[in-house]
From TrEMBL:
Pfam family, one: AraC_N
GO molecular function: DNA-binding transcription factor activity; sequence-specific DNA binding
Domain of life: Bacteria
InterPro entries, A to Z: Homeodomain-like_sf, HTH_AraC, HTH_AraC-typ_CS, Tscrpt_reg_HTH_AraC_N
This protein's name: Transcriptional regulator, AraC family
Keywords: DNA-binding, Transcription, Transcription regulation
Source organism (scientific name): Solidesulfovibrio carbinoliphilus subsp. oakridgensis
Domain called HTH araC/xylS-type: residue spans: 189-287
Length: 296
């Protein structure tokens, strides 16, 4: 079964970087050489590797995952990512995007409409050993996505099965908290969704705290527990990552990308971009376009 999952991933990850599958929300990824530790923007989801290794760095924490350990992400997180791979053994992975509505619908079907909010992980990211139940569900989904007919008929239900298996697994509480209506994690997750929907608008710590009925000090404490950074540093990181995507994927110039993500001063944007990504906006965008790699 592990070999079958790896072989299917290899056949569906048809190019360097991301390969979308026939089912929206499921993506395959291939990297044929190592990538050094660099800023990345993780999105909520489940990431299962068939081969290779990755490390995610969130503050002082290091989250390693490989063919025997998968990753659960409950909230969008600016972090740093490192890929360990080679042309002989490329990193191969499958990603299932997850949102609060998906989790809530499944918990309702499970008769669990008051999700438990006690978490094994205090943050928004956690690697966990890949159990046979999760591996087999992932293999069935990947196998279906290798067939055009099975992709249409079977894959939606198999993606739901994979999420169900993850919810029952050791870090399922992390995703259950996405659907929670109360609790500190739920309020921070709600605020993160609001930030992502409005990242280009001016934001201040007092206004962010008011949105989820917390004091600024309480917000800072709970926010850092989930994201390993402060609210305003998080906002800055999201803006810079979004600007990078605009320049690489949509061909925006530096000044236009800066304006689109909320910067009034292109020079300030360039300074903060270089401090964050260790290179200038123009040079970074050119590097990613020339390499034809997927931005981490």
């Amino acid at each position: 079964m592990p070999e079958e999952l790896k072989e299917i991933m290899a056949s569906l990850a048809i190019r360097e970087g991301e390969s979308p599958s026939a089912l929206p929300g499921v993506t395959f990824l291939r990297h044929s050489r190592s990538q050094p530790r660099a800023p990345a923007l993780y999105q909520p989801g489940v990431v299962i590797l068939g081969q290779g290794r990755k490390r995610g760095y969130l503050g002082p924490e290091v989250h390693a995952y490989d063919a025997n350990n998968y990753l659960v992400l409950a909230v969008p997180l600016p972090a740093e990512c490192e890929v360990i791979a080679s042309p002989q053994e490329p990193m191969l992975s499958m990603r299932l995007d997850v949102d609060a509505a998906m989790v809530a619908d499944l918990l309702l079907a499970m008769g669990d409409n008051e999700p438990r909010t006690r978490l094994l992980s205090k943050g928004g990211i956690a690697p966990t050993p890949l159990t046979s139940d999760v591996r087999e569900a992932a293999t069935r989904l990947a196998r279906a996505l290798a067939s055009p007919l099975d992709s249409r008929v079977l894959a939606p239900a198999l993606a739901k099965e994979l999420l169900y298996r993850v919810l029952l697994d050791a870090q399922g509480g992390l995703l259950r908290a996405l659907a929670a209506r109360q609790g500190d994690f739920a309020r921070i997750a709600d605020l993160l969704r609001r930030i992502h929907a409005n990242y280009a608008t001016p934001m201040e710590i007092d206004a962010l705290a008011n949105q989820i009925d917390m004091s600024p000090a309480t917000l800072h404490r709970h926010f850092k527990a989930v994201t390993a950074t402060s609210p305003m540093q998080y906002v800055k990181a999201i803006r810079l990552h979004k600007a990078r995507m605009l320049m690489v994927a949509d061909g925006f110039g530096v000044a236009m990308a800066a304006s689109r993500v909320g910067y009034e001063s292109p020079s300030q944007f360039s300074r903060e971009y270089k401090r964050f990504f260790k290179t200038t906006p123009a040079a970074d965008a050119a590097r990613w376009r020339e390499s034809n790699w997927t931005i981490p």
